[in-house]
Predict the structure.
Amino acid sequence: MNTSHSFDGQFEFKGRAKTWSLIMILVGVVGLLAGFLTGNGERTFADLLLNGYYISCVCICGIFFCAVQYVAQAGWSTAVLRVPQAFAKVLPYAGLILLAIIVAGLFLTHQGPNEEGKITELPYLYKLWALKGVTLKGNENYDAIITAKSGYLNKTFFLTRLVIYLGSYALIGRMLVKYSQNEDDLGGMFNYNKSFKMSVLFLLIFGFTVPLFAFDTIMSLEAHWFSTMFGWYNFAALWVSGLSVITLSLILLRKAGYMQWVTDDHLHNLGQLMFGFSVFWTYLWFAQFLLTWYANIPEESAYFYRRWEPQFKPWFWLNIVINFLAPLLTLMSRDSKRKVAVLQVACVILICGHWLDYWQMIMPGTIGVSGGTEWYNILSPIDIAVFVGFAGLFVLMFGTALSKFKSLIPKKHPLLEESLHHHI
Amino acid sequence: MSTTKYILGLFADPDELMHGIDTLQKNSVPIYDVYTPMPIHGIEKKLGIKDSRLGYAAFMFGCLGGTTIFSMAYFMLVQDWPMNIGGKPAFAVPDFVPITFEWTVLFTAFGMVLTFFYATHLFPGRTPRVMELRATDDRFVIAIDAKGNIPHEDITNLLKESGAVEVKHNDRKYVSYE
């Protein structure tokens, strides 16, 4: 086995990768302009929220991945650790983008029907609880259920919470990256031990706040409804989609001639995680569905009722096929996880699949059935253009962050040798 | 004619064992089997052992378990004695999913254990067949079928040269029939 790699090579973000990311961003900008200029403001804001949430979740997943590896004192992952660390470096920007989208969506308004069908001033996002007068008795927008929840669900506390979640994740992510870079210069166990403690702290904070993060950002779009499974269901989506982006990045970097120390064994491990947590995602999806279906309480069933409208139903089922059956069948056998071409296809399927997953969490509660007459036109080209744009934005930010690392591997990590000789 | 059935080379270290395998293969001496007290990475590939087919058995047992309970639930709750539970239809597929999942896992787990016992002759109550007891403790053992592999002296020398701490010429295959 050849282990005499040079660890000093830096990633250069240029050429086709950079050009393509800029073209993709251009597609996204065109999509946004088309959305706002054709009077689809609400849909465009829903798309912005979807993709802002998606890239933030992928970045958070990078920190979560690093933290799990440190807490488990895992050796195998050392060779791939720079990629999730680069995600962690992107989180401050992704988080700011998400916050900007949410602030704009809360405070910009347009004319539209409220819950009673009366035309009124609605905010672009969170129209159910953020519209004016929703808590004032006698107001035309008054809503008793929202009023009862308004101690938690009000603009000030909502934005404070989001800043706390994203701020604490980004801060800890930054510390983990800093420790790892210090370790490159100094060596020894000092920084590793500090990373371990910081990772424990992160997992503690993350475990308690990530369901709330999903409740606030996504579930409050349909604030009359609630599900205690929703937080973990979103966490599973975050973890699977993040792992897919990590794996795809590694495959593409390896093809471009970087990180030659990443072997099929490392990719096999990541493939196993993708496979296993796709099943975990399905488990949580089904746990939420079965209990709602079985109890059949109107206020709970409302969520699935909206997703079973004829426009959304085909997408609802496609979501299960693409996020459960596809990874189950493509990644089950050992050989398929070790064939880079198969793994790459599975990554792309899961990345698009979880976009669709988020899409059908968000769209029925925002634009609803008024967004299209048939299942094939409820998903508009604007949605896809914005997704492409944000993918390009993510590639640009990730590539720039990765190119700032002096070395593409934590070269003085205490478990480096174990990772280079990883064999399963 | 010698009564030796098997020649065993005992090594104290896994690296020396791997070296011993290399030496024997270079000299075209067929290896019957290798016994080690712990798993050694890469040894299957070196010995040319085929991938385990346990996964296929597991898959088949899983399919069997899922089909069994799904048909059973269908017969009981739809065919034989349909009941009105919460106004749901008799053939309520979401209700069948948890038990189908459980039986799939159960059959897979038991099926794999049984397959493993069958393939390795490890039935409860049966004395395990061991060629060298210290292979379960601190020795890494290469076994060579003595029949046809002559001269035995040369094999002994090859094993000794490549670092074997002891070479045994056994008249019986197993030391633990009783």
About this structure: Residues 25 and 393 of chain A are 6 Å apart (CA to CA). The first strand of chain A starts at residue 109 and ends at 113. The interface with chain B takes residues 286, 289-290, 293-294, 296, 333-334, 423 of chain A (CB under 8 Å). The beta strands of chain A are 109-113, 119-123.
